[in-house]
Input
Amino acid sequence: MRTDANAGYVVLSMLVLIASGCTQAPPEFEPSLLVVTEADMVDEHREQIQSALVDWFGTPDEPKAPKSPTTFQLDQELLAMAAGPAGYVDRGDGEYLQRGLYRQHCASCHGITGNGMGPAAAMLAPYPRDFRPGVFKFKSTYRAAKPTDDDVRRVIKHGVPGTAMPSFSLLDDKQIDALVEYIKYLAIRGQVERELVAHLADEFDFDPLANTTDQPFDPDNDKEDRELVDYLVAKVSRPWGYGNVQVVQPDPEFVPSENRSAAEVVKSVAAGRELFVSTRAKCTDCHGLPGSAVIAKDYDDWDEAVVNFLRKTDALVASIERREQQIAGLNEAQRERGQQQLAHDKRRLQKRKQVAWRLLEPRPDPPRNLSNGVFHGGDELIDLFRRVHQGVAGTPMPAHGSPRSNVPGSLSEGEIWQLVDYLRSQRQARSL
Amino acid sequence: MAKKKHRKPKRSRDAASLTPGQWWERAAAVVLCCVTFPLLWVGGLVTTTKSGMAVPDWPGTYGYNLLLYPWTTWLAGPWDLFIEHGHRLLATLAGLLTIGLLVLVLRFDDRRWMRVVAAAALVGVVLQGVLGGLRVLLDERLLAMVHGSVGPLFFALTAAIVVWTSATWRLARPAAVAICLQRAVPLGLVTTLLVFVQLVLGATIRQMPVTASPQTFAVAVKAHLFMAVIVAAACWFLAMRLLARGVPKPVRVFGVAAAVMVFLQISLGVFTWLSKYGVPRFAVAYIGTGDAATLADGWWQNHIVTAHQATGSALLAVILVGTLLAWRFAPTMTATDSATARNLPPTGVATA
Amino acid sequence: MLGNFTPHAVLMILVGLAPCSASMATDQWGDLTGTIVLRGAPPELPKLDLGTDAYCCKAEPKNESLVLGAEQQVANVVVYVRPKRGKPLVVHEDYQAVRDEPVKLDNEGCAFTPHVVLVQTEQPLLLKNTDAVNHSIKSELGDESFNFMLTAKGTQELSFETPQRVPRPVACSIHPFMQGWLLVRDDPYMAATDAEGKFLIANLPAGEHELQFWHELPGYLKNCQSDQVQLDRRGRVKVTIEPDTVTDLGTIVVDAELMASEGS
Output
């Protein structure tokens, strides 16, 4: 009898276990761990920021286009197509609406939050893009400007050759539009989160030692807090509306004509090669002389944030060790204060280590190997022109053209076109 | 593929040495096995093309009874619907065939264990169907993984039933090189287990939830690569034993199949990565990155990935069947046999 | 820099955070001064990895992340006023006169001179390169980020719309060992300590102000103190400026451990 009853309990508990394993909570946006930890905030503020973000931006299953008092507005219908679990929902009249495009096609690399930390991320080089800082590399606009919709669309449609980013040309236009919209949404959300963290860490009263605050962040009830979020949403969204007027337009006078003679092209390529190896353009400092290896000097902005985070964590470890040795030699009042500070710093270190473990190991940003003719941002002449002209945002590749319209850059447009001809000739040389 | 080779020359012998009832029983087993493999393939496509949730309800399809869903809509509808509904139809067919097989076995097979096996097959196929349905209803990745791992087991079982119902199995006589084959059996069992573990690892990678951490995925991929080396070595040694001189032909066929398929499988694995993520970082220095971006959900990508998964199941079946046949041709180990088998190498060394 | 055409001002008013024009006229002004010194053994600075550039190797720039005077006075500490949100400071006419004069940031001997450059919004920042070698100049300033080439002996002029909370790093992508700092603020009330560790902010409107103290190694000079003032955990202190007097904050002491423990 008793053993039977026990067996029953075992079976029952196993069923409960299985059932609980089967209930799947809908995925949530992850807080920006690095930014939040760096800010040394109190937990209350961290949570309040996350809940404010849910109020303004919704969840991965039900995103909201935040209302911003600028002319720029995300399209709610497109967002819905990209969000949620992959599949279709019943519209109620027998028609089914597409859902979950982002989760189906993007999230396994770029992550639910768009933080570039999807499951496959660590295995890829370069790492998948983290959308949250709102910086995009391959675009037609001035360096600090946002990409146009067409720029994002182009990357999705054609992929990034030489990286794990595939071409999604099999999706239809509406589907790609939905993904473009959702990427902008993730970028805006990520940037607003950063701004909120920076603002609270800088302006709000709180006591990190005691992990308490007497100034809660409460946009639901506090008018000033609500205005702050509205202001930041507007500030972050606004530049997305200006992509199209920030496109780098080459001066028609210098654009190489399509019916150049072969001799003209050869001449231009030769001039381009001379520029490439010159100390004026300094291309070879990083890209190496033709045929030799590239020289990675620095990290891109995404990895640099991680490098700095790890460096500071190491500095904190060393500091804690030093202070622990010194503490015995202090007088009583100093010792008490020192102990308190040490205890706090140890908690900070603990948090930093937990975060450090989850970050992707930073890698120096390799300059493109230009001799193989594989160009990440497109291989049309105009793509290469813009790449040389404005450099690559977020990376060590500097702009060689004018940093803004109507001022001379370090190279003239004519010279940039010669470089472009030379770079293209490398590709042709390879495919022959 | 490998079984075809094995089956074809056997047909006439089957016909000659099997009673008509046994012949029908065997025919049902072969058909079931032949339906299960495409079922696995299409199931793989469901995962690859992420069509799993293209039909949100179960057991019906968009409110229709599974079998009454308008076939025109099925054929002309979106690709993911075609795949998912097709998977369900094939699965239904496999289920019906399993019932038929059980009936035939109960009617014609005098081996009691065979009746248990056929009944187990039916339980298995029903369980697998329910798992698939729950996976859709709950949209749960863990269930998808279990569903994806039980599939190959069921396929291996159908392959085993094909062998158990064959004349080769019924008429097998102990082989001349019994000791060699006897030693292949434990290795074969271990290899079967290793291949299955590798399949589960593969399913883990395939069904990795998008909320998993990059570290988790990296560990799974590295474990899969490490296991690939182990499995390849195990398959190679097993193949060597199954191909030893004097081993009966039916066993040898599976030795060749194991060697060929493990090679094919590893190649498919490499191409799976290449077609999905491009050239891995460590290899870029040697072979470059390639000119064009890979095409997401392109025909090649989808079929290479699916082939990798399906070939894994086929490899499992081949290893299992090879092991069963080895055991059949060298069934019992007498005390002296096993002592000799165990002591051979040291004795050899000592006498040398 | 790029968005001159944006309805920035309209937006600001819309959301009620507008920097209304000078809140109140005043003719009472005072100066603020002080000195920063380091107590304890300074942390060892890593030697710069100058790479292979012949010009830079010859110029041999030094690590300037901590520059100390003869008595351990700390140079390049940035001191600036933090006006309340929406309440910009009244600016003295002496500043108005020089508002359009560009602030210079030179690339000299493969180092940024000055090491810390302070610029107001809308004020021109003249980027120079007096070296015979090309540099790039890079700073990450959100929507006003830049990274472009400065040819040998070349110049380029920028201006910014958005103030920054703290100084932002300035770097050169070609010579990653080069490091400078750039602070953009809405008003001219900011200063960096000189080689004697001394700062002077002249002509502050009389009244109470919150001051921010920052240095590149620890970031905020948290909990540092002098005989007169005690900075809080974010390196801030409230100070009342009396008319027509020089308010001296005394010698603010920075513990060497603080310099070594954070790093910004």
Notes: Residues 33 and 159 of chain B are 6 Å apart (CA to CA). The first helix of chain B runs from residue 2 to 17. The two ends of chain B are 44 Å apart (CA to CA). Chains B and C do not touch (no CB pair under 8 Å).
